[in-house]
Amino acid sequence: MGEPGERSDANERPVLLRVHLGERKGEGKAAVAEAELIAAYGLRGDRHAGRDPHRQVSLFAEEVRQELLAEGLPMPAESLSANLFTEHLALDRLSPGTRLRIGTAELEITEPRQPCRSITRIDHRLPRRLYGRCGQMARVLRTGSIRPGDLIEVLPADPAAPPPETEIADPLRQPSLFD
Question: Between the CA of residue 68 and those of 12, 126, 133, what are the distances in Å?
């Protein structure tokens, strides 16, 4: 593959393969036929939505999951704690700031996703095998509906947007007792 986000095969366009939501902590994320991404919040109905402005949605490459399955490692999609499974997209090569248009929504990549320790419940070898190949975290820039089969359009980073790590301070906001 050449550039980040480049298709793995000239005939294959990047696509959203699956959408998963998890309502309760400690349970897997169930596949859904359609979902709504909400700007500055995340995926409606997912337990991680609204918690961290830079980690609203998690993305995982189906190719990585299939490779590990072929090696004999158990990789149930429901247990990986990812929201969006992509195909034909060099997901782990995308840089923070890269934007993705999926369905009518738009996301911005904020940081690489790290394998969490709870993944050892699936197999103790997974954290090491997933290091550097665990997908991406993103924030939602534009509210919209998404569904499996939606094409993914890779857009360049917006040079006018603040970096994902930076929050814009409101100059009119008065400090409170809770700051």
Answer: 21, 9, 11
